[in-house]
Amino acid sequence: MANNIFVAIIGLSLNTTNQLKSLFINTVNDKFNITWTNIANVELDLIILNQNFIDSPAVINLKNKNIPILSINYENNKENIIEDNKLFLPFIDTYNLYQWILKNIKTEITLSFNKSEDINLIDEFSNIYHSTTSNYFKCHINNDQILVIDKKMHEIWVQDDFKFQSIHSLNIEALNFDQVVNLRQQKKRHDLSLWLWNYLWSNLQNFSKLDHSTYYKLKYWPQYSKNIPKETLKISSCFQHGTNINLISKNLNINPELINKFLYIALACDLIQEIPAHEAKLKFNNEDNTPSTLRSFFSKMRKKLGI
Length: 307
Prior knowledge:
By secondary structure, this protein is of the alpha/beta class. It has ten helices and 14 strands.
């Protein structure tokens, strides 16, 4: 069960109070529970208050008890910032709030984003593709880089200075339209699956081993960057007709780990789908697809691709 923290909110309008409650709940997620209380509670862990109350006698007394205080401020050109224990509205940056909580609130548990060994990108991005509650998402990669995804338009928004590096942590958060408009500023638009494919291929180090006998078929061809191995063209040609890892590896002498990586990323990018064995055109176990037929297919494919 998640631990509790006790939080009091002072001197803010009902609308602002409800917005801040929502923000904090989304930030801590299921890591611990927030109990909203008043400043008389002896278990108080945090005070959120209007900046105008910061020097009141009651608050000064609480400062002396070393209870963390986060003042809520409004100031032009400082929106969405936390500095010197001041949060400037409007605010949507849950990652920076998360870091402030880690630094200032004493709790027996440690909050953390998903680590690389625990990340299942197929599941994470499938939740986006098939979400029925939101069309917009923010992805934190390695705790410092933000991607904005518009599922409905199948777009991803990326900063020009985005660092192409290995994924060590990942957090995905649903957004509303107004939040997306703000976050998309100073970012460039790309096709979601195509950009994600090339990013993951270049940077993904840890990925799950998939069943080598399960059949899959491409829905869309990946658009390759220059640094992707030539073997991926062969793999794509095979999956275009429906096949599995074992069959490709055996007939084309390609390392099954490379095929597994291709399949894993294609699933994460929604470029491929699992199919029943009887729908696969490249397989050994039916009379219409004998080994000689397969050899003919692979021979034609080699000629077509010049391999």
